[in-house]
Design goal:
4 helices, Immunoglobulin-like, alpha+beta, 11-stranded mixed sheet
């Protein structure tokens, strides 16, 4: 069963996990002893690395969760997954995606994530619902537009997600700071237990979303070009964007392996 997240563009987010502090992007430290006026500044020390945990509370990029069902030819089983993409702000390209796989006849579910690049892979990830028990997961494979990670869970964990408010996902960035994503769980249970979406409807929604991203990117480019012609420099010399975030299809991971019921 292919992961249907086809519109994620993570490259621009990678810097957040290297530079972000608890209050946003880290600022370079000012010299401890500024030179007097008229004398050149000297670099007395390297900028301080941001310290402490980072939390990013995300919002859904679609109105609701989506349930997709189909037949996994490799495992010869019917599989449904309930999925949603999330971003730091509404109406922006996704930065993280969650999909919960339910394999017919198997009491083990798979929580599969598509995470941004720029994270430490060896520690894996941890996740918990609200203030509940912490569970572990591991990264499986990375591609230029993101990394797949997953964990196998039992029914009680899914029940917690159905009743819970927030799914917390903790990873570590390149500065070894912990980054926690807060994923809202509103209506997850309703969608997980409800009927699957028509694939044609899902495809139309994805096309509409990509068109909206392209439109906003074009509008932003025109604004930047107009400001540049007027002598302004709102981007500090950076080149204006020329297209919407990358829409390279997310590679489909291998079909979920058959797990033995306990």
């Amino acid at each position: 069963m292919a992961f249907s997240l086809t519109r994620l563009g993570f490259a621009g987010l990678a810097g957040i996990f290297v530079l972000a502090s608890g209050e946003g992007f880290a600022q370079q430290a000012a010299p401890a002893n500024p030179a007097p006026a008229g004398q050149p500044q000297t670099q007395s020390a390297a900028p301080a690395q941001p310290q402490g945990p980072i939390r990013l509370d995300l919002v859904g990029t679609q109105p609701q969760w989506t349930k997709v069902c189909g037949h996994d030819q490799a495992a010869n089983k019917d599989v449904c997954y309930t999925t949603r993409d999330f971003s730091a702000q509404a109406n922006q390209a996704p930065v993280l995606a969650v999909a919960v796989y339910d394999i017919k006849g198997d009491d083990t579910r798979i929580v599969r994530l598509l995470m941004p690049v720029g994270l430490m892979l060896r520690p894996g990830f941890r996740f918990w619902v609200d203030s509940g028990t912490t569970l572990d997961g591991a990264f499986e494979i990375c591609f230029p537009n993101g990394c797949f990670a997953e964990s196998r869970v039992k029914g009680p964990t899914i029940d917690q997600m159905k009743k819970g408010t927030t799914l917390n996902i903790a990873v570590r960035n390149q500065a070894n700071n912990e980054v926690t994503f807060g994923v809202p769980l509103a209506d997850f249970g309703k969608t997980f237990d409800g009927p699957a979406v028509d694939p044609k409807v899902l495809e139309a929604e994805q096309k509409k979303f990509q068109e909206e991203l392209q439109k906003r990117a074009d509008e932003e480019r025109k604004k930047l070009e107009a400001q540049k012609q007027g002598g302004g420099s709102p981007t500090g010399g950076a080149a204006p964007p020329t297209s919407a975030p990358a829409a390279t299809p997310a590679p489909a991971p291998a079909a979920p392996a058959q797990s033995k019921s306990k």
